[in-house]
Every structure is written in structure tokens, then in C-alpha cells.
Design goal:
Helix content: 25-40%
Distance between the termini: 35 Å
Strand content: 15-25%
């Protein structure tokens, strides 16, 4: 923890670099990804402060849209689309995902009931060719596609995708290599960016 504290102490010593950020934000992308500490959207994309609007959830899960019971995730998505006017939404899964791995293996999560109940929002249980594969690559990629479908059911997303003002993309990040793949509709597969 001490190195993080030391950096935080010196971080604000360059106020001229941050003054423009006080004027507001206008990110072009909502980046939905996992809470996993190995997944750092700004590092992956090279984004500077103000360029990405981020939503991080365990397992990059997009919960069902329920207008009568709003969630923080739904509010973040709606704000990004309707207020900030993002032009793209990326749902980015990653290799070695503990959440997807737990679903694929059918792990007993009774000891962590909040985690268990959150993972129940995963849409379909991700399928995998080999549940013993530590990368759970195929399962994560299928999971990303399920989250994209869920995301498209949000009224604000559905409307803007239909009128061409919003694109929705599925990415897969390999923690062990740094490679980023994107789902291509024409081939129905994940390919290098």
C-alpha cells in the first residue's frame, strides 16, 4: 500500500496538467469491464483522463434492465448514452476471469452470497470447450456476447444503435499476453484488433 500512498501524495503536484479536467468531461466511449485488478482500461487503450467513461463490475456483467428497480450499472449506462452521448460502448472480458471460471466450473459460492447472487445476473451460463482451461477463453468470449445482447435491451442503447448514433463492441483481453481481440459480426469470431 505504501507505494500507492507515496504516488498519491505527489500526483497532485502538477495542477497545470489537470486544470482542464475541471471544465467537464466528454468521453467518446463507455468501457464496461471486469473489476479484476489486472484489467486496466486506460492502460489497454492508452486513454488519458476524460477519454473513457468506465463501468467495472465483477465479471463485466450487465444486469437486466428493470425500470422499476434501477441499478447503479443501469444508471451509468443511461448517463453515458443520454447525457454524455458516447458513440461507442465496449464490453471487455478477459482471460483468467474468476467470475466466469466459477460459473463454468459450478463452484460452490455459498460462502460468498453476494458474489453468488451477482453472478446469477450473468444471463446464460457461459459455455466452455474445456472447463479445465485456466484462461476460460471460449467461455469468456461467449459471456461477452451474452452481455452485449443484454446491453442492447436497454432502451437508451436500443434506440441509439437503431438510429446509428451508437456502436456496441465486444472485446476479449488476454491478461497473459496483452493481446486484445474484437468480436466480428461477419465471421462471428474474435479477431485481433
Amino acid at each position: 500500500m505504501q507505494p500507492l500512498i507515496d504516488n498519491a501524495r505527489t500526483f497532485g503536484q502538477r495542477p497545470e496538467e489537470f486544470a482542464k479536467l475541471a471544465e467537464g468531461q466528454s468521453p467518446q466511449v463507455l468501457f464496461i469491464t471486469c473489476s479484476d485488478s489486472r484489467v486496466v482500461p486506460a492502460l489497454i487503450t492508452g486513454a488519458r483522463p476524460g477519454e473513457l467513461f468506465e463501468l467495472r463490475t465483477a465479471g463485466n456483467i450487465v444486469p437486466p434492465y428493470l425500470s422499476e428497480r434501477p441499478t447503479g450499472e443501469a444508471a451509468t449506462i443511461e448517463y453515458a448514452v443520454e447525457v454524455l452521448g458516447v458513440q461507442d460502448i465496449v464490453v471487455c472480458g478477459h482471460s483468467h476471469c474468476g467470475a466466469v471460471g466459477a460459473l463454468v466450473r459450478g463452484d460452490d459460492l455459498d460462502g460468498v452470497p453476494a458474489v453468488r447472487d451477482w453472478l446469477a445476473h450473468a444471463a446464460d451460463e457461459p459455455s466452455a470447450a474445456d472447463p479445465d482451461d485456466p484462461t476460460v477463453a471460449l467461455a469468456v468470449q461467449n459471456h461477452v456476447l451474452a452481455q452485449l445482447l443484454r446491453l442492447r435491451s436497454y432502451p437508451c442503447v436500443e434506440k441509439r444503435v437503431a438510429d446509428g448514433r451508437l456502436r456496441v463492441r465486444g472485446w476479449y483481453y488476454e491478461v497473459h499476453t496483452g493481446a486484445v481481440l474484437e468480436h466480428r459480426v461477419d465471421t462471428d469470431g474474435f479477431q485481433a484488433l
